[in-house]
Write a structure and sequence with these properties.
Elements (H helix, E strand, L loop, with lengths): L1 H5 L4 E5 L4 E4 L17 H10 L3 H27 L6 H30 L12 E5 L1 H27 L2 H39 L1
Antiparallel strand pairs: 1-2, 1-3
Helix pairs in contact: 3-4, 4-5
Length: about 200
């Protein structure tokens, strides 16, 4: 996911002559207007950010946030290897960070999916260009699917660690047993009366 976030192959432009251009959600060779050389990093980043569409800014924010939660999830994974009294807390943190990483990564991928095709801001050559998805986008999509699976596994570990499955099962069995005993108590007078009637008519 980290590679897909910062690599320059989220979007592809395919021209009629067969040439293919690639671009990512970050731009590393930006230049300020009327400048023959690349500006300072701060000016370059400011100019790049100001020229991003609203949905592109959302994708960048969600993607960077997902990477941040990924690092926290990796840190939780490392701490979970150490057996201690606080291991349950670490597993809980791992579940939360993994889930948040999955959510933000999924939002980023979905925003990019629905907004990438038919981009409106390259009008000068869009008529001769087909816009598609690059390798980085597909890697991000695979990372999202993998993170969903990972979050599910961590959630199951969390439930087993806190014995929530066993507690739920015991509660369910207790409720069923209580209902059976209540039904038996309610039916006992009726069965006794039926038995008395049977004995009466048999005599």
């Amino acid at each position: 996911m980290i590679f897909s976030t910062f690599s320059a192959d989220w979007r592809t432009y395919t021209f009629q002559n067969g040439d293919v251009w690639q671009s990512g959600i970050f731009k590393y060779n930006c230049k300020a207007p009327k400048s023959g050389q690349g500006p300072q990093f701060s000016k370059c980043g400011k100019y790049w950010w100001q020229n991003q569409k609203g949905w592109e800014k959302v994708v960048v924010i969600f993607q960077v946030t997902a990477v941040g939660w990924l690092f926290l999830s990796l840190a939780s994974t490392i701490f979970s290897w150490f057996h201690s009294l606080r291991q349950k807390v670490v597993i809980f943190l791992l579940m939360v960070t993994s889930a948040l990483c999955t959510v933000f990564l999924g939002l980023s991928v979905m925003f990019y999916t629905f907004n990438n095709i038919g981009l409106p801001y390259h009008e000068r050559f869009l008529e001769n260009v087909s816009v598609g998805y690059g390798l980085s986008f597909w890697l991000a999509l695979l990372s999202w699917i993998y993170s969903i699976f990972t979050t599910f596994i961590v959630f199951c570990i969390f439930l087993s660690e806190f014995d929530l499955f066993a507690k739920s099962r015991n509660v369910l069995f207790s409720e069923l047993k209580e209902k059976v005993m209540k039904t038996k108590d309610d039916d006992e007078p009726l069965l006794k009366k039926q038995s008395q009637l049977y004995d009466h008519y048999r005599i």
